[in-house]
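Milestone M4 deliverable, item 7.
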Amino acid sequence: MQKIEKDCKQTRRGDPTREFHSVLDEIRDLYENKGYLKQKSLFEFMKEKYGWTMDYSTFTRHFNKEIKKKEIKKESDEAGSQKKSDSEPILNKEDNTTIQKETNDDYKAEIEAEVMAYGKKMREIKEIIEKEGKEK
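Output delivered:
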């Protein structure tokens, strides 16, 4: 691809968008396959290679819209299709036995019981401290 030549200082509205989208496949390839994982280094490489006039903030806006959000959506779709239901047994890695996955209600009840026990213990400690204070 030829370098984009800058005839005047001002860019026309939409030029940065066209600059970005004209090489979107290359940007995606550099990010996903060639190790350009930092947006700043990718931007600097592309700006030098194609003589871009766009700012870094414009690049990051388009990059996040076109690559990052689609990547996150793709990962969440894959995770959603692989999600197990609460009733399915899961493998215990320690002893290779299957265990039943706890439901949120069971977990919530367990946490509430621990909090109640903690509160009771704190009240007991407070009473002991108060008794010791009165004795002195």
